[in-house]
Design a protein that fits this description.
Helix 1 links the parallel strand 2 and strand 3. The protein has three helices and three strands; from the N terminus they run E-E-H-E-H-H. With 138 residues, it is α/β, with parallel strands linked by helices. It has two domains: 81 residues, no CATH class; 28 residues, no CATH class. It has a three-stranded parallel beta sheet with strand order 1-2-3.
Length: 138
């Protein structure tokens, strides 16, 4: 007797920085918060057309970002669990892999460096300065 094959599924809870893999090899369910303090970087969430082709389902919620964890309210956990159960019951297979599509969305704008203060309130002007300071602190 061969056990039923289990599809590969990825679930995200309001990821903010890492773009989705859009090669269509597995299904993705992403819960998004409605939290003005936590903004998703440009390029993390693909547009609707790529989501449909790649088997990505984006669920917009009214929850706060920090509530979407095991420490969040029971109401939030129950809602997420119900949606997840329905998603997993869907036996549809991921769409075929589109070889002419990029495997991830663009990373969006990235700062080359940002001012960071160390214990001496010194502002670093470059990554090499920051590296030297980190070695000095440790």
């Amino acid at each position: 007797m061969i056990p039923r094959a289990v599809p590969v599924v990825s679930v995200t809870l309001d990821n903010l920085r890492v773009p989705f893999i859009t090669d269509g090899k597995f299904k993705i369910l992403s819960f998004r918060s409605k939290d003005p303090q936590f903004k998703t970087d440009p390029g993390v969430i693909p547009d609707d057309a790529i989501c449909e082709k790649s088997g990505i389902k984006v669920v917009q919620t009214d929850f706060q970002h920090t509530d979407m964890s095991d420490r969040g309210p029971d109401e939030v956990k129950t809602s997420i669990q119900g949606t997840l159960d329905r998603f997993l019951e869907d036996d549809s297979t991921p769409p075929p892999v589109m070889t002419d599509m990029p495997t991830t969305t663009g990373p969006g704008p990235v700062a080359l460096h940002a001012p960071i203060k160390n214990r001496r309130s010194h502002r670093f002007r470059s990554l090499p300065e920051l590296s030297r300071a980190i070695r000095w602190v440790h």
